[in-house]
Structures are given as C-alpha cells and as structure tokens.
Amino acid sequence: MIAIIDYGVGNIKNVYKAFKGLDLDVIVTSDKSVINDSSVIVLPGVGAYKDAMDNLNKHNLIDCIKENANKGKLLFGICLGMQLLFEKSYEDGEWDGLGLLEGEIVRFKNHLKVPQMGWNKIIKSKNDDIAKGINDGEYVYFVHSYYLKPKHEEDVICWTNYGTRVPAIVRKDNIIGMQFHPEKSGKTGMKLLWNIKEMIK
Amino acid sequence: MLAKRIIPCLDVDKGRVVKGKKFKDIQDVADPVELAKYYCDNGADELVFYDITASNENRDIFIDVVERTAQNINIPFSIGGGIRTIKDFTKVLKAGADKVSINSAAVKTPELITKAALKFGSQCVVLSMDVKKNKNDWDVYINGGRINTGLKAVEWALRGQDLGAGEIVLNSIDSDGVKNGYSIEITRLISEMVNIPVIASGGAGKRGDFLEVLKEGKADAALAASVFHYRQIEIKNLKDYLYKNGIEVRRDF
User: Which of A15, A158, B15, B140 is the most exposed place for a label (fewest CB within 10 A)?
Assistant: First the structure.
C-alpha cells in the first residue's frame, strides 16, 4: 500500500491518479496508523516551505515520517515534498526541514525567469534503479523557484540545467526525491513511477 | 535549458470544444476529453481549457470535463473563463487543474491575483490579457474583448507580475483566429519586460508563425487552437520543424 500524505497542501489528486494508473494500492491519508502500515510513503507538496512544515507539524506527522524513514521504509518526496526532506530552506526566511538528507534549499539567482516553469532535460550522474530505463536528455516538467544545494553530490542521481546545475532526482538508500512532477511528465514521468513500483515488489 | 512549450487551447461550451474567429462565429469541434488525450499523446506540452459558457448550470458540465480530463492526461493543464473568486480557484484546482487563469476578474479586482498566489502559489496563477493596438499603444480589454480598460498592456503585465502572477497569457485580439501570425511586437515587448513566462496566443496559421513568435517574439510558449483542432498542423511535425530551426522543444513523448 502506498500512502500519500495529505497535510492540506497542493494538488495530490494527480499523484494519486498516477499511481492508481499503475495498478497500485494507494491511499491519501493523514492517519498515522495507515502510514505506519504502508510500504511506501509519498510526500507531495506544492506551495510554501514554511506552510508545509507547519502543516506537517499541525497534523502531528513529522515524527511519524522520520520514524518510518529511519526504519528503512521507502519515502518519496515530490517537488516541495523533496525539498522538505532536507535540512533547511531559505524560502522567505530560514526554516528547518525534516533533515533526513543533508543540503539546503536556496533561491535561483540568475538572469533566467523564476519560477523555472516547464519541461527541462534530465542528465544522469549515476546509475540507480530509480532512473532505470531513463535516457539522458529526456524531458520532465518542473515548477519551482528554489532548488537544492546538496551537501553530498553522490546523493544526486539526475541533474538538470537551469542557469546552474539543479538536482532533479536525489536518492540516499530508502529516501528518494524528485524536484519535478513525475505525475505531470508524460511517459518519462510514468516510467519513473513505474520504477518506484518495481522497488516495492 | 527549458524547452519552448506548444499549447493547444480548447474553448469549451456546454461540454463541447468549440472555436470562433475574433471571439465570434462559434463552431462545434470535438469532445474535450478525447481531444485532450489526443494532444497529450501527440506532443502537446500543456493544455489550456477556456470555459466560454456563462450559466451556472453549464459550469457544472465544465467542472465535470476538468475532472475527466485530469483522469486521462499526464501533462499540466490550466483553466480559464469565468473565474472570479478564490472559491472558483479552489473548485477547478480540486477538479484536477494545475493552473488557473484570470482575465476580467484580475482587472476588476487585482488583489485576487495576490490572494490566489498566497493561497495556491504563484505557479498556479496565470494572468490572461486580451490586448489590442490603438494608434501607438497596446490597450488591455476585458469581457471577451468588448471593453477597453484603458490599461496599458506592458504596465498591466508588470503589475500582474508584482501582484503575484506566475505566468502571462497574451492574447492579441486582432490576430485571434485570423491565422496571419502572432503579434510579435507586443509579445516581445512584454516578454523582455517581465521575469515570468509569457505564452503567446492568437494568430497561428502556419509553422513559421510559431517559429517567429518563439524566436523574434521571445515567447516562452505558443498557444493555438484551430490549426491543431482541424489538423492543419500536427504538433509532432511542428516540433521537428522548430527543432531544425534551432528551437529547443520536447520531442520524446
């Protein structure tokens, strides 16, 4: 069972629909016992970093997510959900994240338009099951104004280029993050979600 | 770098896709969900749905179209037409849309842009502008191109960005449905002034029009309706042509 965490942010219906389309058991929930019983936790997210952390806190879910991740359960963050996995964000202030992975979230500082909104190419920097079957140069759909500065480059599986190198897929052991929206990234996105499915077989 | 986006636009009336010229002479074209699926499978980067109905009864039909579309495609899509309140935003976003565009309502109550951006994020809020050149100035029109607001297009675009819009759709009233090419001048002016993506709309008739607006007009995306609906231009073929002419586009789909 895949548990998509419902903590009052963003549009999670499309993530739900995408997993459902892969014939997976999936539920949208904020119930800790359901999350504890799941085989994968999906942390979606659209919106502001602080609001998202506040909402997780309000729903009493921070410890629950951390405990499950520390036990080795697959935890998959999408977009803002990926950013929340890290230590800190500088989005309109300075806010602590879940701190499960090391790195900080910073704003784009270049001449390009912000947010990065649209389709960009991803390039693999290492082989990993999460990016199985994905070729260099395949496009995925990004919408974000802040990006990850990772502490460990080896946590980054795929990069994209938006004036600077931007981590697109990160993974450390059982924790996976995607800065873009796989559920909105056409066939490439579906392949990536398929790879998640393969991991929980 | 980001690929330039090609965006089919579906005007929906009473649950059907329709198309008119210069906002008039409406004709029935197709089933919206089937057409959306076709575009998604054939290279569209994003879709736009405009609800051109007025009555509340038909609005429910439209919401049903949005829901069924969300279940059938895996690319982003936005909704426009008749959005006036935060409640309207919530309704279409809940139905599965990724973005919401506002036009007349943004002119009448500019704080709606800010409220929506704070609640849903700027990436959700698209400022749609209908513009027309009078003498030397580009003016902003509302109510389907019937009322000149007196606002200047460039100033309104900048203000919209400051208020929190994450993207601009620029519709040129005189070019709409005429197939003589996009309005390059105003597209370029606005695209160079703002720091958010600009989608050019109105006037696509041949592949070269897309090339021109993406290159000379500096648009981040090009929107079109009838040339796609009537299969005068296939998106795949258009993208191959753009790619050969030095435009970065997504060709694996």
Answer: B15
Quote the tokens at residue B242: 């753009």
Domain count across chain A: 1
On chain B, the residues whose CB falls within 8 A of the CB of A145 are 122
CA within 13 Å, CB half, B65 = 28
- Tens digits of residue pLDDT in B6-33: 999 999 998 899 886 555 566 778 899 9
pLDDT tens per residue, range A107-151: 998 888 888 999 999 999 999 999 999 999 999 999 999 999 999
> Within an 8 Å CB–CB cutoff, is residue B221 touching chain A?
yes
Q: What local confidence, expressed as pLDDT, does residue B94 receive?
A: 87
Distance CA A103, CA A85 (A): 9
What gap in Å lies between CA B226 and CA B21, rounded to an integer? 10
Query: Which chain B residues have a beta carbon less than 8 Å from that of A81?
Result: none
B13 in a domain, yes or no? Answer: yes
CATH number, domain of A103, equals 3.40.50.880
- Phi, psi for residue B43 in degrees, rounded to 5: 105, 0
DSSP classification of residue A13:
H
Q: How far apart are the first and last CA of chain B?
A: 18
Sign of CA dihedral B164, B165, B167, B168: negative
pLDDT of A201 higher than 90: no
- Calculate helix-pair angle for B153-163, B184-193, nearest 10 degrees: 40
Q: Does the pLDDT of residue A9 top 80, yes or no?
A: no
Tens digits of residue pLDDT in B67-108: 999 999 999 999 999 899 999 999 999 899 999 999 999 999
Q: Which chain A residue has the Cα nearest residue B40? A: A186
d(CA A96, CA A119): 29
For residue B77, give the CATH number of its domain. Answer: 3.20.20.70
ipTM for the complex shown: 0.90
For residue A183 the two structure tokens come to 């559920």
Asked whether residue B234 is assigned to any structural domain, the reply reads yes
Question: Does A133 reach chain B within 8 Å, measured CB to CB?
Answer: no
Using an 8 Å CB-CB cutoff, list chain A residues near B1. Answer: 120, 161-162
Q: Is B253 a domain residue?
A: no
